Amino acid sequence: MGSFPALVVREAGKIRQVALEAMDDAQLPPGEVTVAVQFSSLNYKDGLAITGKGPIIRYYPMVPGIDLAGRVIASDVSAFAPGDPVLVTGWGIGEEHWGGYAGKARVRADWLVRLPANMTARQAMGFGTAGFTAMLAMQNLEAHGVGREREILVTGAGGGVGGVAVALLSRLGYRVAASTGRHELDGYLKSLGAASILDRAELAAPSRPLLRERWGGVVDTVGGQTLATALAGLAAYGCAVACGLVGGSDLPATVFPFLLRGVALVGAESAHCPGPRRVAAWQRLAEIFPEGLPEAMVEEIDLADVPAKAEAILAGRTRGRVVVRLGSSPPRPGPS
Ligand SMILES: NC(=O)c1ccc[n+]([C@@H]2O[C@H](COP(=O)([O-])OP(=O)(O)OC[C@H]3O[C@@H](n4cnc5c(N)ncnc54)[C@H](OP(=O)(O)O)[C@@H]3O)[C@@H](O)[C@H]2O)c1
Q1: CB–CB of 71/38 below 8 Å?
Q2: Residues in the ligand 1 pocket, defined by CB under 6 Å
C-alpha cells in the first residue's frame, strides 16, 4: 500500500491550514478508479482554492488540484485497466472531491480521459484545464465562422488560458493580438506567435458602445470592462468567447454590438464539458502540439511549492502554465 504525499487544506472556524501530509490509500475517497498521479497543474481556480480568496472548496479537509494526469493503479470498471495513462480536469475535483495535489487520487471512471497517443502526463498537465479551455474557446470561434482576415484578440495573454490561446490560434494561421499588462513579456508572447501586442490598460478604460471594427474574434479571460471594450471593437458577425473573470465578473456593455453588428458572445465551460467533446478537444490539442506546449510556457514545481505559487497566480505573477510534479519523474536524458 505505502503512504504518499498530499497537500491538504483544513479549516476549523477562522483557522485555515494548508500543509503537506503523508496519506495512505484507506484515506482516499470512494471512486471506481485509483490513479497514481504523475503531474498536476496550477490554475487560477486552484489559487483561489488554496488561499481561500474564493469560495471554491466545498468541504474540509480537501486535497485541492482541479487537474491530474497519471496511470491507473486499480479499476472497478472494464473500460480502464492498471497501467492505462489517463487525465482528469474539472468535474469538481479539488473543489468537492479530492483532487490532483496528491500522489494518488480515486475518481469516477466517467471523469477520466485516456491520454492521447504520444502525449505524456507532463505534456497533458502543461495544457491542463487552462489549455483545454483555450481549445474550447477556439472551437467556439470556428463554430461561429470566424475567419483569418482580421486579428483575434486574446486578453490575459501572459497567463495560462491566454498563453495557450495565443499559441494555438497562431499555429492554426490566425493573426493574434495579445493583450498584456506586463510588457516584459512582449518577446515571450511574440515567440508564441502573437502578431501584435496591446496594453491591457487600453481595454480596461471605459469605451464607447461601438468602436472601430477591429477584431474578428476575441478570447477573453479578464471580463468586466475589458470584455465590454472587446465587444465594442468586434467586427460585424464576429464572436467573443468569455472564459474568465480575473478583471471582474461584471459586464458593463450595451446591446449595440449585437444589434448593429450581429456579433456573438458565447462562453467556454471546462469543468462539466461532456465526455465526447472533451476527448475530441484533447485529441486536437495533441495533433496541434505533437510535442506539447513550447517549454517557454511551462514552469515545473514540486508539491511543496504550490502554496507560494497559488499566491503568485492570483497576483498575476506567473507566466504561461505551471505544472506540479508528483511521484517519480521519468528519467531525464543524460550523458550515456
Ligand atoms: N470558463 C472556464 O471553464 C475556465 C477555465 C479555466 C480558467 N478560467 C478562468 O480564466 C481566467 C484565467 O485563468 P488562468 O488559469 O489562465 O489564470 P492566469 O494564468 O493567472 O492568467 C490570467 C492573466 O490575466 C492577466 N491579469 C491578471 N490580473 C488581471 C487584472 N486585474 N486585469 C486584467 N488582466 C489581469 C494576467 O496576464 P497579463 O499580465 O499578461 O495581463 C494574468 O497572467 C480565470 O478567471 C479563470 O478562473 C475559466
Answers
A1: yes
A2: 43-45, 129-130, 133, 156-162, 180-182, 185, 200, 221-222, 243-247, 268-271, 313, 316, 318
- The domains of the chain, with CATH numbers, are 4-126+278-325 (3.90.180.10), 130-267 (3.40.50.720)
Distance (angstroms) between ligand 1 centre and the Cα of 85 equals 29
* Spatial distance between the Cα atoms of 195 and 206, rounded to a whole number of angstroms: 25
Predicted TM-score (pTM) of this structure: 0.96
pLDDT digits (tens, 9 = 90+) for 4-37: 999 999 998 889 999 999 999 999 999 999 999 9
- Look over the chain and give the mean of its residue pLDDT values, rounded to a whole number: 96
State the closest ligand 1 atom to the C-alpha of 271, by its place in the atom list counted from 1: 3
Give the cell for residue 114: 485516456
Q: How far is the CA of 83 from the centre of ligand 1 (A)?
A: 34
Which residues, 6+ apart, have CB-to-CB distance to 310 below 8 Å?
42, 46, 47, 49, 50, 51
Cβ count near 237 (within 10 Å)? 14
Residues 234 and 258: beta-carbon distance below 8 Å: no
DSSP line for 112-155: -EEPPTT--HHHHHHHHHHHHHHHHHHHHHHHTT--SSSEEEES
The cell for 57 is 472548496
Task: Return d(Cα 83, Cα 99) in angstroms, integer.
Answer: 20
Residue 12, pLDDT score: 86
pLDDT in tens, 72-109: 999 999 999 999 999 999 999 999 999 999 999 999 99
- pLDDT over 70 percentage in the chain: 97
